[in-house]
Amino acid sequence: MPRFLLLALCLLTVPFAAAAQNRGAVEQQFQTWLQKEAWPAARKKGVSRGVFDASLNGVTLNWKLPGLVPPGAAAVPRKQSQAEFGAPSKYFRRSSVDAAARGGRQMAKAHAKALAAAERKTGVPGRIILGIWGRESGYGKVAIKHNPFEVLATKGFMSTRKDYFASELTAALQIVQAGHIRAGSMKSSWAGALGQPQFMPSSFLKYAADGTGDGRADIWGSETDTIASIANYLKKHGWQKGRDWGFEVTLPPSVSCTLEGPDQARKISDWAKMGVTRVSGKPFPDRELRAKGSLLMPAGRGGPAFIVTPNFYVLKDYNTSDLYALFVGNVGDRIQYGMGDFSAPWGKIDAMLRSDIAVMQRGLEKRGHDVGGADGLPGFKTRRSIGRWQEANGKAATCFPRANMKAALSQ
């Protein structure tokens, strides 16, 4: 599964010194857990004893991983100084965007046949596949060096989401059992995400594809299998063939930013009638005018605005971030069409912690707004709720948190 499902695990950790644990004793408990719990779970899924033993041979606890809670210890919140609210512009660093686009153009030529085959089979454009591949692993150039069995077993034994990681450990063993890769050759991220597309093991079992026809889905060493797997993932999550991901637009003052969100989608022709235009000056394609699109404003009135299609939210299934999906779409457009930066600049934001945003969210909830949860992350529900609160108080809607809102909303 894409790494977006692991971000929340970084919110909790534990001071091991305070836990006063004897690591040797905990290690013994871990080895017992492998035999008494991990092995029976794997056996039920068809994993042989030989595969289990070979995969976990020599595996010990990795105490350096984040989010660990040893037996008998209590998880404590991280310091809020480590949870600053970041400006959207940071996601689009010049070096990251340029490297992804430059590498993508090279890969588009080198793997034109595989990209074309994947697009024919799934309807997913090659430029979108390349955008994800580049973001996840730098087209396979980013070092993926962790032992997934060590990572998943450690987290399955003692983490804030033990059951989840224990099931992922079983899935990793099933991958070896199926013959896709030898246990010693399987590599993952520190969170257990596998190979060039960064699939969690359970996602590998659901979406990894054999693009070469050799009977294996090798997302570690095969670019063709990597391309086929990313395309298959997006197809299975509902990619609509023939539709774009979205368009940067100019939003007239008469159109409120509180209209943001996929639950307020309307025909793109209706957005056009309201005065929403593409920044390029080109009309919306006819096929798009007849279909629905949603308003997206990741920085409220302080940044670029977009009309996005349902395919944008398929990209968010890969990683639950508006900015991730925008990055992939923008890099893809750079690769194929030579497009550049978004037309509207990303505005500056106030220095805030995520805990400050959470205070605002709770204040909005008390006033009857649906913010999508007080998690300190201002998604579209939080952004438009801020706008609605502003309008209800006779102010122009900006749909983005500011530091001075905290005091007003905490009353």
UniProtKB/TrEMBL annotation:
SUPFAM superfamilies per UniProt: Lysozyme-like (SSF53955), PGBD-like (SSF47090)
Ranges for domain Transglycosylase SLT come to: 29-333
Annotated keywords? Lyase, Signal
**Which domain of life does the protein's organism represent?**
Bacteria
Provide one Gene Ontology biological process annotation: peptidoglycan catabolic process
Enumerate the Gene3D superfamilies for this protein.
1.10.530.10, Bacterial muramidase
Annotated signal sequence is 1-19
Recorded GO terms, molecular function?
peptidoglycan lytic transglycosylase activity
Protein name (Swiss-Prot/TrEMBL): Membrane-bound lytic murein transglycosylase B
Q: Which species is this record about?
A: Pelagimonas varians
